[in-house]
Design goal:
The complex is a heterodimer of chains A (537) and B (286). Chain A is mostly helical. Chain A is built from 18 helices and no strands. Classes of the chains: A mainly alpha (537), B mainly alpha (286).
Chain lengths: 537, 286
């Protein structure tokens, strides 16, 4: 934190009006500046990304061979659940919010986010939440307590109503992260609706703002449902209620409905901001205007609307009437229509463009291909008949890592490389960036492609041991996972050195084909920007 | 949406640094940890007090700052619009919070209980009729009497609906800069809210001591107390907000042009009112 602060102070020399507030640590704790808060979100996200990765590397080490070698099943259960919770709530969501904080005001010509103090509260809820989430695991290593949440990130009862105190920590952590998300989303919605530069109509909004607007609507609509569900879980655990217990007339499947009413939109919450800025990267490096702006906007709106009415495809096999199965199957598959529109617009944007392949473009293209695989395998899982075979297998694990790693994390990395020169005023190391991309893309496929095959062959997920015939593919997967993890250290090094001012100075436009208001400001932008607002013609 | 650019002349008020957001996060951190360790029997209940105290301190300080900024004329139409939009979306998220509990109630009544009834081998004595009083699938749950709709709950409905009228009278008076009726309307609303809370307290006491109806009374007791309990909490918060607004009105704050805090409190109160109507119909009556 202190190095980041020192570097940022160096940049303050370029500012037309440097900030007037406390300096040192207090600047970061008490800030109301969207750029400071965005930086903290992104740094928090990177730290939690490394923690979440280390959790799962221990799991992969255990799965290198069949049998139990390193990790006992109790710890294994904690590691997989905490990996998912950390990656989703503490790495991917804060990364998207970091970008929103940094870029939305710059892109729409606003002086700051609409509710600056609320903004800072949203961020500072996250480090306590992350601490609460991981605390029982750390205490477990010192022999205190029963360990971290061990019912998977979905926290299904009756396992979660019967297991140890880690579930309580996870529930309270999720409450804090939920408050943070809802406050952040309210801020994004108000900023976009109220703070646009004069003349910037809704249909002139940058695509990133549209993606985030949809994400914010989804968060405001679904996080409170998750909060309700985990509150019922907490009272079932400690206050004698019977929401999820058949003994009192309740039903464990009720939790699955409530959880996935949030959980399915959550997938789009993670991805919509990325689908927002990928077109900006494509149009920049293809040096062509974005194809099908209106089609993309309406696709984003359609996907957001559809995402809240398809949730039960996550538990087709838990038991529901055939009519419900058919409804959830067809509604799920219908999402592929607006998503296909997005894919065709992305491809049409780069079609016959004069492309160059800098690191952000590499990540964006890798994103399109690998996320495409994730989307197509999702179509397979949406089929009720096929899902009876594939559900709860490694096929599912491979599918959602193609969507959430290739679609999520690699998308975020495209954004980091794209905007890092704008945020820091310095170019990152292009050679290292390209090496990072190729190592990531190759080792990612090495990790997860085999999991499709072991999943199809019947290997169940969430089990620390497996049948002998899966050994080779699991070894490949583990080797890939460690390569993938180590490759991310290049990314960390590249980002940190750029932030500390290594690398040549970045111009205002940074890239040759950039459009949009953020590129008209200096690199890095002044502490307070767009005051007065620009006028859009 | 796009025609709202009359604000471009002035510059938006971005508050300088404030320690309240960070302090509030620390208070919630302490409260959450105290709650977790208390539930698991590691610490006594007073371990939750420091976190609660910090939260209360911040709520007073932070809102105090905003009220001072408002009094010094810092907020113009542009900032006012941000507050209004923010409050509307916040109430939207609250609606979805209650939707989770209503959804659970509908699911249990229409799907889970009929399903359990179809397992006649497992629960031969189970009759499956809502509200499962004394006829639950498990014998572990003591018999209880469900809460009727036409005693105190009906009175509470009347109280809340009347308070919706009085807060509207206050609003009507405020728009005409009629301070007497503003204060009378607000005071009546706060009193009606307080009366509601007293009635609900009596009702809970009645349930626990005479009806044998508790949180543990199967899924009926669980949904009854969670829905009415969270609603009661929101009534309490709403009444406190209205009391603060009343205090500000007595000090001469607000005018027909500048009264966001009043409207936010009134919106919140109407939201609580509407949730109650849902509760009365689906929890007490049907």
């Amino acid at each position: 934190m202190s190095t980041g602060s020192a570097a940022a102070h160096d940049h303050a020399h370029h500012d037309h009006d440097a900030h007037h507030g406390p300096s040192g640590l207090a600047r970061w704790l008490f800030t109301t500046n969207h750029k400071d808060i965005g930086t903290m979100y992104l740094m928090f996200s990177m730290i939690m990304f490394l923690i979440g990765g280390s959790l799962i590397l221990s799991v992969r080490a255990e799965l290198f061979q069949p049998g139990i070698q390193i990790i006992q099943p109790e710890l294994f259960n904690q590691l997989i659940g905490l990996h998912a919770l950390v990656m989703i709530f503490a790495a991917l969501m804060p990364a998207a919010t970091g970008f929103a904080n940094w870029m939305l005001p710059l892109q729409i010509g606003a002086p700051d986010m609409a509710l600056p103090r609320l903004n800072n509260w949203g961020f500072w809820l996250l480090p306590p939440a992350g601490t609460i989430l991981l605390m029982p695991l750390v205490l477990y290593f010192f022999g205190i307590g029963t360990g971290g949440a061990d019912a998977g990130w979905t926290l299904y009862p009756p396992l979660s109503t019967q297991s140890g105190w880690g579930i309580d920590f996870a529930i309270l952590a999720l409450h804090l992260m939920g408050i943070s998300s809802v406050m952040g989303s309210i801020n994004v919605v108000v900023t976009i609706l109220n703070m646009r530069a004069p003349g910037m109509t809704m249909m002139k909004l940058p695509m990133f703002a549209w993606g985030w607007l949809m994400t914010a609507f989804l968060l405001i609509a679904t996080i409170p449902v998750l909060a309700g569900a985990i509150t019922m879980l907490l009272t079932d655990r400690h206050f004698g209620t019977h929401f999820f217990s058949a003994a009192g007339g309740g039903d464990p499947i009720l939790f699955q409905h409530l959880f996935w009413f949030f959980g399915h939109p959550e997938v789009y919450i993670l991805l919509l901001p990325i689908w927002g800025f990928i077109p900006h990267i494509l149009e920049t490096f293809a040096r062509k205007p974005m194809y099908g702006y209106k089609a993309q906007v309406w696709s984003l709106v359609c996907i957001a609307a559809l995402s809240v009415i398809v949730w039960a495809h996550h538990f087709f096999t838990a038991g529901m009437p055939v009519q419900a199965l058919l409804y959830f199957m067809y509604s799920t598959m219908s999402i592929s229509l607006p998503l296909a529109v997005l894919f065709f617009c992305w491809i049409a944007t780069i079609w016959r463009g004069s492309m160059t392949f800098e690191t952000p473009m590499l990540f964006a293209l890798g994103f399109i291909i690998l996320f495409g695989i994730g989307g197509l395998t999702g179509l397979v899982l949406a089929d009720v008949a096929a899902d009876a075979q594939y559900h709860h297998s490694y096929f599912v694990v491979a599918h959602f890592h193609y969507t959430l790693f290739a679609g999520g994390i690699m998308g975020v990395m495209a954004g980091v490389y794209y905007w890092l020169p704008k945020m820091t005023g310095h170019m990152y190391n292009e050679k290292l960036g390209k090496a990072h991309f190729w190592l990531t893309a190759i080792s990612f496929n090495l990790t997860f492609m085999p999991q499709f095959f072991v999943g199809l062959a019947g290997m169940p997920r969430r089990i620390p041991d497996y049948a002998l015939q899966f050994t080779e593919f699991n070894m490949i997967s583990t080797i890939g996972a460690f390569a993938l993890g180590l490759s991310q250290l290049i990314f960390v090094y590249n980002v940190v050195t750029t932030w500390r001012g290594k690398g040549e100075k970045a111009s205002d436009g940074v890239w040759e084909g950039t459009k949009g208001l953020e590129w008209q400001l200096s690199s890095p932008p002044p502490h307070h920007s767009w005051d007065p607002q620009p006028v859009i013609k | 949406m796009s025609d709202s650019h009359a604000h471009s002349a002035g510059s938006y008020y971005v508050p300088s640094h404030s320690h309240y957001p960070f302090t509030l996060a620390l208070g919630l951190f302490a409260l959450a940890l105290g709650f977790i360790f208390n539930m698991n029997g590691k610490v006594p209940g007073w371990a939750m007090l420091p976190g609660t105290a910090v939260i209360l301190y911040v709520v007073c300080g932070w809102f105090g700052d905003v009220i001072r900024e408002n009094r010094s004329g810092t907020f113009k139409g542009w900032e006012d619009r941000a507050f209004r939009l923010g409050m509307l979306y916040f109430i939207g998220s609250e609606v979805m919070f209650f939707a989770a509990f209503f959804g659970a109630l509908f699911y249990v009544r229409n799907l889970a209980v009929p399903d359990l009834l179809s397992f006649d081998l497992l629960y031969p004595t189970f009759e499956g009729s809502w509200p499962l009083a004394g006829k639950g699938p498990s014998t572990d749950i003591p018999a209880f009497t469900p809460m009727g709709a036409w005693g105190l709950p009906a009175l509470n409905t009347a109280l809340l609906l009347t308070s919706g009228v009085t807060v509207t009278i206050a609003h009507w008076a405020l728009l005409r800069d009629n301070r007497t009726w503003l204060i009378l309307g607000l005071a009546a609303t706060v009193l009606l809210g307080a009366a509601f809370m007293v009635c609900q307290g009596i009702e809970y006491h009645h349930a626990y001591t005479e009806l044998g109806l508790t949180l543990g009374s199967g899924v009926y007791g669980a949904s009854f107390f969670m829905l009415t309990g969270f609603h009661g909490l929101h009534v309490t918060i709403g009444a406190i907000i209205l009391a603060v607004v009343l205090g500000r009105a007595l000090r001469g704050h607000f005018s027909s042009k500048d009264h966001f805090a009043f409207e936010a409190a009134a919106w919140y109160w109407h939201f609580v009112d509407v949730v109650w109507l849902g509760l009365f119909v689906f929890v007490y009556w049907l």
